[in-house]
């Protein structure tokens, strides 16, 4: 690809001029990145934006032969989704009419058309097909970068001055490029003990071992991270150097749903600073921070200040937008005075995954090298995607986009409530069983848990199992994201001890059997073993199996049907019938 068709220097949204500049982190670059030269065509870029310049240097097609004259779209209004939808659908009303409180169920929309040639004098910030469908700069359209810089500055508030952004094809693409930037073959990489499997798959070709770090209710444990890094001995690790990269999902952690707050991030940041570790912050669920689930008929246990903030979030306008931003967990960037944080963001969970569009925020040394990787990569954002998304953001503006995110958050909070309510209506629940022997070891210490028992009537009291029989599953209501992480009490199964005596892996055998029975009954969960980063410190252990349940796509009726089916399958599986 001839990427010479590129705009000049992009203007920068910057509200951080008084902050320190990033430290030099070029020693973290791998050898390939150090060898990678900037595009030899960059010398042309300085001149192409000069008014009156007749450009004959680039081998680029003429836009006249592009078959697309216009690109039109109808988009939802930025305030299309309500901020406080009702808990459950009203009977005899459609889902849409209930959700949007309108008898016609019509969603407010607006339309736009992107022409091949925009009227007026040439402006690099103008979105037009003659440039959007041309060979693109690795940095993307200038107007998109401007918007993202404003967003990062106002929402994440980085603690150093010269950070920048770079668009990509979503977080998986961004993480792959970060691996290509920093990882040498065989480097050990720090991860949470339960983590996103595709993130691990990305660095497996580099023969990189994972170093699982224990988790608690907020995610990664600072005590264990300090222990691993402080006691690292190369001769005991097969000659491997101490890890210099940490991959983490701080908000709505996948799969556990844990969310890391400010104090924990400060602790981990200081440890990474002490041992010179680059923090790779993967945040696809950041704006889906919804807070805790409140069971029906109970009051929230929020503090007075937290309740005031939650009430302010339900207001329209700038006050509600400000409350939404204030309620978000602070990004690692907010504590990063060095420039050692590389943050990955995506439009996949807040716009559309098919747009394949996201961005990285990092120090200028890393952004420059990542740009070089993008210049020679086949993975670059589509001109159609960037044109549509940028025009949408321009129409909404910053305040409108924040309002859109608030509506998306409220929608997923509603769906989370559906699933948790379905458990409450289907099972007998016992709350906060963390210190109870029933769930000890099933989830990290301090985790708020809910244990589910069968509602099937029992004829007599059992001294060991009580009136409700054995504990079947325990889950942690998520505070963000799209998932409920659930543990199965496999050790309560009648065949568990017999399988152990036969020398079999009783936990895996029984969880696999349960997963298959659920699939045969048309309910599909993600098995927990997909997410286990391995090592001796995995959550739970023998006698506990795990599933990840997504509440993002099923309807209200489907959610209840799935949980009721789960209950019936569990009763049969544990032979409670």
Write up this protein.
- The protein has helices spanning 31-35, 42-48, 95-100, 129-132, 142-156, 171-182, 197-203, 222-230, 262-274, 304-313, 318-327, 364-375, 383-426, 496-501, 506-520, 556-573; strands spanning 70-76, 109-115, 164-168, 189-192, 210-213, 215-216, 219-220, 245-248, 278-282, 341-346, 358-362, 428-431, 450-453, 473-476, 483-488, 526-527, 545-550.
- It is an alpha+beta fold and 577 residues long.
- It has 2 domains: 3-59 and 138-287 and 334-399, Type I PLP-dependent aspartate aminotransferase-like (Major domain) (Aspartate Aminotransferase, domain 2, 3-Layer(aba) Sandwich), CATH 3.40.640; 427-574, Aspartate Aminotransferase, domain 1 (Alpha-Beta Complex).
- The strands form 5 sheets. It has a 6-stranded antiparallel beta sheet. It has a 5-stranded mixed beta sheet with strand order 3-11-10-9-8, sandwiched between helices.
- Strand 6 (215-216) and strand 7 (219-220) form a beta hairpin.
- Helix 10 (304-313) packs across helix 11 (318-327).
- The longest helix is centred in the C-terminal third of the chain and has 44 residues, at 383-426.
- 42% of the residues are buried.
- Mean pLDDT is 85; it is low at 1-13 and 100-104.
Write a brief structural summary.
It contains 16 helices and 17 strands. It is α+β, with helices and mostly antiparallel strands.
């Amino acid at each position: 690809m001839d990427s010479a068709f590129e705009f000049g220097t992009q203007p920068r949204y910057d509200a951080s001029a008084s902050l320190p500049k990033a430290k030099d982190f070029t020693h973290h670059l791998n050898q390939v990145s150090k060898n990678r030269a900037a595009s030899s065509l960059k010398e042309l870029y300085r001149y192409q934006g000069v008014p009156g310049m007749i450009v004959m240097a680039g081998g680029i097609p003429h836009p006249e032969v592009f078959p697309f004259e216009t690109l039109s779209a109808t988009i939802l209004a930025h305030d299309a989704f309500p901020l406080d939808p009702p808990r459950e659908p009203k009977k005899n009303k459609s889902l849409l009419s209930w959700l949007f409180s309108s008898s016609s169920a019509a969603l407010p929309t607006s339309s736009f058309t992107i022409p091949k040639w925009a009227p007026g004098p040439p402006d690099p910030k103008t979105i037009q097909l003659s440039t959007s469908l041309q060979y693109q700069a690795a940095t993307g359209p200038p107007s998109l970068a401007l918007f993202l810089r404003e967003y990062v500055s106002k929402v994440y508030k980085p603690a150093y001055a010269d950070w920048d952004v770079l668009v990509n094809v979503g977080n998986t693409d961004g993480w792959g490029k970060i691996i290509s930037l920093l990882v040498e073959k065989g480097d050990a990489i720090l991860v949470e003990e339960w983590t996103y499997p595709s993130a691990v798959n990305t660095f497996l070709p580099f023969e990189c071992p994972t170093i699982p770090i224990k988790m608690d209710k907020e995610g990664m444990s600072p005590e264990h991270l300090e222990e691993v890094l402080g006691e690292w001995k190369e001769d005991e690790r097969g000659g491997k150097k101490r890890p210099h990269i940490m991959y983490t999902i701080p908000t709505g952690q996948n799969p556990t749903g844990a969310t890391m707050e400010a104090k924990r991030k400060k602790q981990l940041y200081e440890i990474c600073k002490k041992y010179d570790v680059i923090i790779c912050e993967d945040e696809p669920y950041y704006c889906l921070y919804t807070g805790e689930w409140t069971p029906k008929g109970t009051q929230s246990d929020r503090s007075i200040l937290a309740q005031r903030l939650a009430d302010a979030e339900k207001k329209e306008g700038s006050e509600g937008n400000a409350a939404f931003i204030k309620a978000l967990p602070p990004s690692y960037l907010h504590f990063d005075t060095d420039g050692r944080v590389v943050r990955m963001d995506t439009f996949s969970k807040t716009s559309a995954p098919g747009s394949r569009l996201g961005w990285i925020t990092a120090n200028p040394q890393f952004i420059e090298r990542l740009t070089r990787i993008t210049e020679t990569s086949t993975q670059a954002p589509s001109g159609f995607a960037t044109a549509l998304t940028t025009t949408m953001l321009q129409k909404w503006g910053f305040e409108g986009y924040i309002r859109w995110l608030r509506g998306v958050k409220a929608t997923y909070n509603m769906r989370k409530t559906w699933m948790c309510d379905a458990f409450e209506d289907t099972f007998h629940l016992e709350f906060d069983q963390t210190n109870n022997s029933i769930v000890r070891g099933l989830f990290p210490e301090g985790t708020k848990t809910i244990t589910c028992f069968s509602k099937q009537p029992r004829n007599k009291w059992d001294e060991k199992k009580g009136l409700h029989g054995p504990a079947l599953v325990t889950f942690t209501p998520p505070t963000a994201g799209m998932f409920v992480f659930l543990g199965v009490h496999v050790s309560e199964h009648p065949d568990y001890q017999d399988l152990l005596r036969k020398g079999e892996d009783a936990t895996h055998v029984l969880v696999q059997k349960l997963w298959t029975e659920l699939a045969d009954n048309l309910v599909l969960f993600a098995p927990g073993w997909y997410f286990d980063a391995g090592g001796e410190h995995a959550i739970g252990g023998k006698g506990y199996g795990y599933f990840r349940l997504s509440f993002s796509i099923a309807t209200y009726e489907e959610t209840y049907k799935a949980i009721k089916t789960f209950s019936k399958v569990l009763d049969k599986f544990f032979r409670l019938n």
